[in-house]
Amino acid sequence: MERRLNHSCKPASQRALIGLLLAMGLAATAGTAGADTATVTINGTIDAGTCSISVGDVNKNVTLATIKTSDLPASGAAALQNVTLTVDNCDAGLSTATFTFTGTSDATDLVRWQNTGTAQGVAVELESSAGVPIGANATNNVLTAQITGGQAVLTFQAGYWHLPSVTATAGSVSAVATVNTSYN
């Protein structure tokens, strides 16, 4: 009797190795199927320090003196009064507070602040303590004050402005200026 050996049979260790390789291939494929990518963006800010706007100045209301239309000049400012904005609790090392004024300018005089009240022919005038107009149109609208002892006080003036060649009428006068602060 003659015995034939079946050469197609592989030893058990070889079959186990092939099975292991197939399983690893499937596992590698399964691990990447449907994979997603994530992006992580990290942002931050390092500043030189900060101050706090004084509680009474956060929403400051300035009431101008009541005047008569006859008290207004033909054109120009009337009843200017001092206004202060204070920042305090400033971090050590800060030396300057910068105040940037923004708002809506008058349609006929872009430097003056638009009156949203009922009086006609009148706008609002803001001036630096040196008498330079603080323009609603971003002209000379940045003022600075020195920080001393953890505090800075900005003084400026507010008043009425009679627009040229327009008859002023009695009524209310109102304007809003937004003041952004930064510190160095």
Q: Would you mind describing this structure in some detail?
A:
- The chain has one domain (52-183): Fimbrial-type adhesion domain (Immunoglobulin-like, Sandwich), CATH 2.60.40.1090.
- 11% of the residues lie in helices and 29% in strands.
- It is built from 1 helix and 7 strands.
- The protein has one helix spanning 12-32; strands at residues 52-53, 76-88, 96-103, 122-128, 142-146, 152-162, 177-183.
- It has a 4-stranded antiparallel beta sheet with strand order 1-2-6-4, with no helix packed on it. A 3-stranded antiparallel beta sheet has the order 5-3-7, with no helix packed on it.
- Mean pLDDT is 88; it is low at 1-5.
If strands are numbered along the chain, what order do they take across the biggest sheet?
Answer: 1-2-6-4
Separation of termini?
105 Å
Name of the CATH superfamily: Fimbrial-type adhesion domain
Radius of gyration: 37 Å
SSE sequence, one letter per element: HEEEEEEE
Number of E strands = 7
- Mean of the pLDDT scores? 88
Share in helix: 10-25%
Supply the number of helical segments. Answer: 1
